[in-house]
Amino acid sequence: MRLTPSFARRCFVALATALFAAVAASAQTPPVNRPWVSEHRSGPDGLEGWTLSWPQPDRPNERYPGALVIARHGRVIRQISGNAFVWKWIFWADGKQVAYESGPLHFGLSCMLTDIETGRVLANVDCFHGIPEDAPDWLRTLEAPH
Question: Which of 6, 32, 63, 113 has CA 20 to 30 A from 131's CA?
Answer without folding.
Answer: 63
